[in-house]
Hints:
There is one protein chain. The protein has helices spanning 14-22, 109-116, 163-168, 186-189, 204-207, 248-255, 270-283, 293-296, 317-329, 402-405, 417-428, 435-439, and strands spanning 32-34, 45-49, 54-58, 65-70, 79-80, 83-84, 95-96, 102-103, 124-126, 136-143, 146-153, 177-180, 218-225, 228-233, 239-242, 260-263, 331-335, 340-345, 374-381, 398-400, 445-448, 486-492, 495-499, 505-510. It is α+β, with helices and mostly antiparallel strands. It starts with 13 loop residues before the first helix and ends with a strand.
Amino acid sequence: MNVGLTAVVLGASLHDILTRLKAQPLLYPTIDVTYSPIQPIVAPIVLNLPANGFRLRFDGPDQRLRLIEILDFGRTQLSYKNIDLVKLPEEKTPIFTSSGHVNQCGPVFRHVYNRLMGPTFPGEYLQPQDKADPHTGLYVLSYPGIAFTFPLQHTAWSPTADFVSLLSSNAAAPAKSLAIFNGGSWQEARQNLFTRPCLNPRSLALSMKGKEHQPDEIEMVNVCGGGLVEMIRRFSIPFRIVLGETTPQDLVAELGPPDAIYRKNDHRLSIHKNRRREQRASHGSYGASPARSEDLFDADHSSAHTTTDDSDAGEDDDQREDEQGKSSAKCFYNYFHHGFDIFISYPSNPSPPFPQSVPSVHPSTSTEATDHLVATKVLLHGNVPGSYPFNRYRRSRWVIDPEAIEAVEGLDSETSFATLSEELRNIWKGNYASVQAEKATQNAIVLDRDWGDSPGSSYEVLEGWEDGEQVQKRGSGAAEGSGSGTTQIYGFPGMLFEVLKNDAVSCLTIY
C-alpha cells in the first residue's frame, strides 16, 4: 500500500490515471479536476473522486501523482496484505456521532497498530484548527509511505503521554483520513512532496509485472536547434532525432509503434502558404525567418495541411497524381503516452542552428530531394489544464539546450512565454535576413479550436500572420485563464509556440 491503490500508483502521470478512471464511468462516476487557471503548470493539480472517497494530488510541472488521500473509508473497500482496513456494511448508510458529525467508519487505532501495520515511532499532534470543533485536535501516526490521522480530544493531549495509551483510550476516535506517499514518514515527505524524485514510472503498464516489453519512457526532450532533438530516457541512452534523416523505422525501433497515425487531408489554409511563397519569390531567398508557412500550418496533428503547391492549369496528369500520392503518404505519428507527435514527410531544408551554438554539435542534414519518408517535425504537447486538448497527451517536458544558446540554464517548458519570447528575440537579434522578418516574431496568428466539428478539426485563422493587429501583450490576459479554445501561434527559426491566454505554452513544434 505504500505505492498506491489498485489502479492508482504513485508516480504515474496525470494523463495515464485520468484516462484509466474515465474509462470506468460506472466505477468512477464523478471526477472533479482542480487547478490554478493563472499558474496551471506550476501549482499542483487535484483530482477529487467524491463517490469513491479519495483524492489525488499531482505536481504541476511534471504532472505525476504525489499524494493519495482516503477521505471516506465507507466509499471503497481497502485492504493491506489481505487484511481489510474496515468492514463495510452491506447498506452504506452514514452513522452520526453524538456531536452530529458523520462517522466515516475509519479503522480504530488498535486495529492499525496490532493487526494491520504494527509498531511505529511516535507521530505528530496538531492543535485544533476547525472553528466548528475547537476541542478536537489531530494525531498523525506515520509509517513508511503511509499515515493515519486520528481525531483526539485536546484536553487529553500531553507531550509526555504515551501515544499508544492515548490513541487506545476513549479520547481518540477512529481514523478520519489516510495518506499514501513516498517517504519514510509524513513529517519527512511533506517537506518536498511535489519535488522529490519519483520511484515509479509514469505509465502503469511499465510498473506492472508480467507485461510485455514496453518502450522506455521519455523523461525530457532536449531542443538542440538545427533540426536536432534529443530524447532523454528513463533508463536507456538518449535517442537523437535528426529532422530530415531519422526514418519511421528508427522511430518505431526506439519509441515503439505509434498509438495512432493521422494523415493530412485539409487544404483550407493553402491561401496563406501561397502568399508566403509569392513573397519569397519577389524578395528572394532569405536566411533565418520566424517560421516557414508550411511549418506554421502543420503545427498540430489535428490541424495538418498539405504543403504541396496547387497544380497549374497546364500541368500534366502524371505529375499531379505523383504530387497527390506524395501528399497522401505524409502523416503524423501520434505518441499519446510519450506526449508528442512526429510528422513524417519528405526531406526539406533544415532550420538554422542557434547563432551561438557549436557547429560540430549539429548534424549535416542533406537537402537533396529524395523519395524516402523521414521525420521532419516534432510536436511537444504541454497537456495544460483548461486548454482545449487537455488529457489527450501525457505532458511532455522540454528544455532548450543551454550549450546551444550559451546560457547557464536552458529555457524550458515551465518558462512563461513572455520570458521565452524576450530571450529568443535576444538570441536571434541581428541574425534575421530583414527587419520585417525580425518584427514578425512579435506577431501572432490566432487560432480557435472550438469552431470545428470534432477535436480533429483544423485551425481557424482569425487574423493574418504578418499584420500583427491582433497581438496580445503577454500576461495581460493571464487572469482570464485558459478555458477557451482560442490560442496564439508565435514563430521563431525552427520553433513554433502555441500560447494560451495565461502565458503558458500549450505546444512547441520543432522543425
